[in-house]
User: Fold this.
Amino acid sequence: MLETLARLPEDPLLGVMAAFRRDTDPRRVDLGVGVYKTEDGDTPIPAAIQTAERELLGASTTKVYVGAAGNPRFNQAMLELTFGAGSEILASGRVQALQAPGGCGALRIGAELLRIADREAVIHVSDPTWANHVPLLGNTGLRIERYPYLDRATGGVNVPAMLAHFEALSRGAVVLLHGCCHNPTGADLSAADWEAVADVCERRGLVPFVDVAYQGLGGGLDADAFGARLLARRLPELLVAVSSSKNFGLYRERTGAIVVVSPSSERTAIAMTQLQRIARGMYSMPPDHGAELVARVWESAPLRASWTTELESMRTRIETLRASLVAEIAQRRPDVDYSFIARQRGMFSLLPLSAEEITRLRDTHHLYMSGDGRINVAGISRRNVGYIAESLAAVIR
Ligand code: LMR
Assistant:
């Protein structure tokens, strides 16, 4: 049986991570996979999570199963983080969350739910979008199409083209939106753009599926939830995939949730039974460790305060790095305009580089980025920003 299988190439993004680890040159810089890094290139565990982990170790008495819906306290924390504690939408009962194995797991089981609801549903993803969106959603059998998103001339969003695409969709079409910190472009929707998206979704009966993987790293915790909150207020139905990988630093613990908003608490409760059945049939139950840590941080005033302060310092550090990279490039290459990097948000920017330039940056300058020219801004530091700018200046035509 196994002899029939063909060897597949390495996942491109994970391949960049592996290639960087093999490179021993002291100048090497990892701008590949999207993980937050400090000045020293470390990806630390937030202090609040460390404290919660120590407390949990001392208090744990069992590892008995929790259930297909995961940790209810974590699910409540995710609802409050996404929609705001005490918000009208939470009080309405129209919204519930189910813990999933990371944001990826949330995207997948959300797509499985859509497939059960409508086998013919088409999911429209932005052009470009995070490469893994396509298999995560499309391997359910649902068709994937693309809508115009990035305006390559400005580094912003081509809002008219995006809205025109949405306007032409038929009722029940699903549109995948990045709640904040668009991956891979860093080009986000403004408040007015979100209003326009809500208008067209309302008018055309579209179902948004919002991927919120970087809440807190773009404009702040509330600002980054603006789109999801607005759509939940204005529309009868939507799905939201949330991740605790980046903002709680829990990457490998696979901690996330799928959130369902429907017109009534009854409908939402029905959708939750479906989601539990999907989870049970795919992986039975999500891992608890990360979820329990998030719940503990969220429920403790001092731990929550420590976490929000640390997250805010990560966010502002990324903003500073964006500004200094723009300045360093401008100093060396006044003939090119890379100022869009400072206008973008979150961990990523998509640089307008050719495949050959990206290869040269890797092979000659030891600068690792994903194959489409995406850089992880959090991989920059005060120490290497000059070197990165120098390397870019040498290859940009
Ligand atoms: C990324 O885009 O780099 C992250 O979301 C990590 C991943 O799994 O690809």
Residues 13, 33-34, 130, 132, 183 surround (2S)-2-hydroxybutanedioic acid (CB under 6 Å). The radius of gyration is 21 Å.
